[in-house]
Amino acid sequence: METHIRKADHLRICLDENVQCRHVTNGLERYRFTHACLPEIDRHDISLASSFLGKPLGAPFLISSMTGGTELAKTINQRLAAVAQQYQLAMGVGSQRVAVEDPTVVATFAVRAIAPTIPLFANLGAVQLNYRYGLDECRRAVETLEADALILHLNPLQECVQTSGDTNFRGLLEKITLLCQTLPVPVIAKEVGNGISAAMATRLIEAGVAAIDVAGAGGTSWALVESERATDQRQRRLGRTFADWGLPTAECLTQVRAIAPQIPLIASGGLRDGLDAAKAIALGADLVGMAFPFLQAAHASEDALYELVDILIAELTTAMFCTGCETLGRLRSPGILQKI
Questions:
Q1: Is 339 annotated in some ligand binding site?
Q2: Is 268 annotated as ligand-binding?
Q3: Element (H, E) at 11
Q4: What digits encode the pLDDT tens for the residues 146-192?
Q5: Do the annotations mark residue 95 as ligand-binding?
Q6: Is 220 annotated as a binding residue?
Q7: Has 123 been labeled as part of a binding site?
Q8: 66 is in an annotated binding site
């Protein structure tokens, strides 16, 4: 029951309260594209097609992990899945811990029938491997979703601020290594808004993760979200103190790509439009994840979601056209993106 309440609280707080980082940004504003006044391409020839972990995509967007476990979450997930299928976008669901503990809510996550061909990612907190979770629970999360990969989210700060959070992270890397060796689908390591550094990425890659979502600071602050939920003044203050903790997304991207040129890399954390997406791709991202913009639109209506994806695609395409890039790979050409 506590997990169900937490899920409902998270949705309400993210939609109704200002829990965005207060002072830290995603860092992408420090970069500017070199404008091509003569792009020498036809805008209609620009292709956003890509792939991730061997799965084709119509555009390089990930509807990042958000929710599940409640009736409102079910509606939101179904709307998200419909738009993901229409545009062939990747999609992750919120933490499935609630569904592992209570199988009656599995349907609030189950979207494969709506989105039969998209890359779909299951999701569990990595720390649960220290709280009686193992291969069976992870396999169940994947199988009930019919997922193509499992996201293991890493959230030490959130657990510290969350009342009675799970804070035993000792020996977790060894368990992640074992899971990567035994789970029949790829494992993706993801932060929740505080970033993954080059040093941490190195350890995760050595453990066997197939991809990394840097999920840097600059967007929704889960310290603030848990501060809003807290029932005592101590936890409220703790969340406010650490509201802007973490590495900006752009810094994470450049760090991780420098030490791991080949690892499939997701950029998320405070990205809000297609220009942010273009910059993230230019810095080395293979996939661009957004949560808050999709949550707002999905809560409004399915039509609002289609409008959002349409403008994201238009923004990314415009950035490519005005830099003379017909393909996503060309965005990474030397001199196209400058640090200012």
A1: no
A2: no
A3: helix 2-16
A4: 999 999 999 999 999 999 999 999 999 999 999 999 999 999 999 99
A5: yes
A6: yes
A7: yes
A8: yes
What distance lies between CA 30 and its chain's CA centroid?
Answer: 22
Closest alpha carbon to 285 in 216, 335, 218: 216
Asked if residue 197 belongs to a known ligand binding site, the reply is: no
**158 in a known ligand binding site:** yes
Residue 291 among known ligand-binding residues: yes
Q: Tell whether residue 50 is among the known ligand binding residues.
A: no
pLDDT > 90: percent of the chain: 96
**Count of structural domains, the chain:** 1
* 55 marked as binding residue: no
Instruction: State pTM to two decimals.
Output: 0.96
Whether 7 has a binding-site annotation, put simply, is yes
The amino acid present at 241, given as its one-letter code, is T
Cα(111)–Cα(81) distance, integer angstroms: 6
Q: What is the CATH number of the domain that holds 333?
A: 3.20.20.70
Q: How far apart are CA 117 and CA 131, in angstroms?
A: 33
> What average pLDDT does the segment 111-134 reach?
98
109 is in an annotated binding site: no
Q: Tell me whether residue 97 is annotated as binding.
A: yes
Question: Which domain, by its residues, includes 103?
Answer: 2-339
Beta bridge partners of 187: 150
Question: Bridge-partner residues for 290, per DSSP?
Answer: 63
- What pLDDT score was predicted for residue 8? 87
Quick one: angle between helices 71-87 and 302-321, nearest 10? 40
Q: pLDDT tens across 40-51, in order?
A: 999 999 999 999
Q: Is 6 annotated as a binding residue?
A: yes
Q: Tell me which of 6-20, 26-40, 124-138, 196-210 is least confident.
A: 6-20
How would DSSP label each residue in 142-197? HHHHT-SEEEEEE-HHHHHHSTT-----TTHHHHHHHHHHH-SS-EEEEESSS---
Mean model confidence pLDDT for the chain: 96
Q: Is 78 annotated to bind ligand?
A: no
